[in-house]
Write a structure and sequence with these properties.
The protein is α+β, with helices and mostly antiparallel strands. The protein is 24% helix and 28% strand. The longest helix is centred in the middle third of the chain and has 22 residues.
Length: 674
């Protein structure tokens, strides 16, 4: 039997007469009344500043009878009744098979299918998850949104954020959901639908709950998890290698007007290795109660940054890039908003021809309608091209993408309920379009926090969003590790974070300890970039004290020293789709690694165990079996298993795979840190 025959899906009967769906020679689901459901829903959706409250009044119809007709499995309320639901195995291109789910009455708009044969497997995926890498035992709604502040419903701070602005979030809220599941048994499932859905891993196995009457689930099989990652990355589109300038020295984020250039020079004089200056306030600022926001009209502000093109040219002469900021919205009090209105480029209110305005927190902004190609082209050319790339800007934070309201009217006529999750992908396409129009794809660089299935093809780099400036379990420094590992499994090779965190509200302020621990983490990500946060004047910055500046200088030079290794990982990502930051289990059969999410392999040859608990001077680490690892600091071989290791500030546990061709490069790290 050929490998193609072995991997295709088929219905088969077991010894007890049950019908099973088989893929790659492995059972995937049992066809009975517990495996599928169909019904209708009445949703209630509220949005406030990118935070959503989504509820559904669901009525499920009983399906007690099933029968097979060719390659279709049909389900009815009882024998003799008309079928209400059909599962069909379809032809595959790129995957092993496609399972088509279809309700057979137009009033039925809710589908549920459970793959019970995956019970016992470890389940991963779901896009960019912040709280849990392993999905087992929990439900994960798939809806791009603000992730929230706190993200822990038992935490008083989260509760206060919920009470104030629906802004607390939960363990599953994320900028970047993706209805893709990888099982340790070597099977992956991808729901090819943009509507609201839920990955239900509460067991047995995993189920998809889908808010539409027809959908397709793609089925993949492979002999290993790396094989699944390779197949999924090919499916969603691989990113180009990151430009060399971004993977070496650090990108310094400052929003201090002209003083940003002065501070940058002081950092360079202090020994910081700098590849770029990132000034998100290039278009001006707007002070709000949340903190220092930006003026959302994407043209350089001549008062805040006089003669900016000349200053960018001077930076280029010193080998330093300049980065800016943009998002897909236009503030109603800026000149580009009026231009967008006259060009018909904005999404409209449902019951009038007026532009829809979204409340972004003490100011309103229009939504550029990317379902209209003329509007997508206008934004790519008029703003990202002429206003940014043409004055020398080398990259930007392509922010937001999660806020599409569910009551907006789009040019395409598409329901905003299905367009909402696709919005980040359309936004990524616009950014990529601009870079390609200027011949700068793979050279200039934008980075995004929002995403959905297919964003990988267009977005070269993720960042983990707006973490709180603390060590909290569900919203602090540790979540950026989970974000990188989970998103990497579904085809995103490159991730990084705001070094130092972003969100400072109430009593939450950066400490020197937090910043120093974030240096240690950021040095072992493909891009090292700082951020001043939403309240820069109230929080410590990387140049606030001589000690913080000296620490930043050291770790920026570590990042610079690792550049040849990172460029090797970029080549590997282009060839195989493997991410730069990888869960331990991706290259290990050791069952103990299945739930570890606060350590990671940086490529194959480095293992990083960042310190992400406040006050910790040691941490418990796990060394997988099957390979020989050496402690980077001592050079000694470390036995496999759990152990407590010293981890003072400046010495996070780091391990080198024995026999690595990059061993001499890694040996420079202790010399640089001192």
């Amino acid at each position: 039997m050929s490998s193609a025959d072995q991997s295709r899906a088929s219905w088969e009967q077991d010894a007890s007469g049950r019908t099973l769906l088989i893929i790659g020679g492995k059972p995937l689901m049992t066809l009975d009344s517990a495996s599928v459901a169909v019904g209708r829903g009445r949703p209630q959706i509220a949005m406030y500043r990118g935070n959503f409250d989504i509820r559904d009044e669901l009525e499920l119809l009983p399906l007690r009878h099933s029968f097979r007709r060719g390659e279709d499995m049909l389900f009815a309320e009882r024998e003799g009744k008309e079928p209400l639901f059909v599962l069909s195995i379809g032809e595959a291109s790129g995957c092993d098979a496609r399972l088509r789910l279809r309700a057979l009455r137009p009033d039925l708009d809710r589908l549920i299918v459970r793959f019970d044969a995956l019970a016992g497997a470890n389940l991963y995926g779901g896009g960019e998850q912040m709280s849990y890498l392993r999905l087992n035992g929990r439900r994960f709604p798939m809806w791009t949104s603000e992730p929230g502040v706190g993200r822990d419903k038992s935490d008083p701070f989260t509760q206060a954020m919920d009470a104030a602005a629906m802004a607390g979030g939960d363990y599953w809220t994320t900028n970047y959901p993706q209805p893709t599941v990888l099982a340790s048994s070597g099977i992956a499932l991808h729901l090819d639908a943009a509507s609201y859905s839920v990955i239900d891993a509460t067991g047995p196995g995993v189920a998809f709950e889908i808010w539409q009457g027809e959908a397709t689930i793609e089925l993949y099989s492979a002999g290993s998890l790396p094989g699944l990652v390779e197949r999924l990355s090919a499916r969603f589109g691989r990113q180009p290698a990151l430009p060399n300038w971004s993977t070496g020295r650090a990108i310094v984020g400052l929003k201090d007007g002209l003083n940003s250039f002065t501070r940058l020079d002081r950092m360079i004089d202090a020994g910081v290795a700098v590849s770029g200056l990132w000034c998100e306030d290039w278009a001006g600022i707007r002070e709000t109660s949340f903190g220092r926001r930006l003026f959302w009209d994407w043209q350089w502000n001549g008062q805040r940054y006089p003669d900016l093109p000349r200053r960018i040219e001077e930076l280029h002469g010193r080998g330093i890039c300049f980065l800016a900021y943009a998002n897909p919205y236009l503030c109603v009090d800026g000149p580009l908003f009026a231009e967008a209105v006259s060009g018909g480029h904005l999404a409209l209110r449902q019951n009038s021809d007026g532009p829809y305005a979204v409340d972004f927190g003490e100011f309103d902004a229009g939504v550029v309608d990317f379902t209209r190609d003329e509007s997508a082209a206008w934004f790519a050319e008029r703003i990202l091209g002429r206003e940014m790339l043409d004055i020398g800007i080398d990259g930007w934070m392509a922010d937001f993408g999660e806020y599409l309201p569910t009551d907006v009217r789009l040019s395409s006529g598409e329901s905003p309920m299905t367009a909402h999750n696709r919005w980040p992908v359309l936004w990524a396409e616009v950014n990529a379009r601009a870079l390609k129009s200027r011949g700068r794809w793979g050279d200039a660089l934008f980075f995004m926090r929002a995403g959905f299935s297919g964003v990988q093809e267009h977005c070269p780099l993720l960042w983990a969003g707006d973490q709180s400036v603390d060590f909290s379990r569900h919203d602090g420094i540790n979540t950026v590790i989970t974000a990188a590992l989970s998103s990497g499994l579904v085809g995103n090779a490159y991730s990084h974070s705001d070094c130092g965190g972003y969100t400072s509200l109430g009593p939450k302020l950066r400490t020197a300890e937090l910043i120093q621990r974030w240096y240690e983490l950021s040095a072992f990500s493909p891009v090292m970039r700082t951020h001043e946060g939403n309240r820069p004047d109230d929080n410590l910055q990387v140049d606030s004290t001589p000690d913080l500046l000296a620490g930043f200088a050291r770790w920026s030079r570590v990042h610079e020293a690792l550049a040849p290794y990172v460029q090797h990982l970029c080549q590997e990502a282009e060839q195989s789709g493997l991410p730069t930051q990888r869960p331990l289990f991706l290259h290990s059969d050791d069952p103990e690694t299945a739930s570890i999410q606060d350590q990671y392999r940086y490529g194959r040859d480095l293992m990083v165990a960042p310190v992400v608990e406040e006050g910790a001077t040691e941490r418990r680490v796990y060394v997988p079996g099957g390979e020989t690892w050496r402690d980077l600091w001592s050079g000694r071989t470390v036995d496999s298993g759990w152990r407590d290791m010293a981890a003072p500030i400046g010495r996070p546990p780091l391990f080198v795979r024995d026999g690595s061709e990059f061993a001499e490069l890694f040996a420079r790290i202790p010399e640089i840190v001192g």
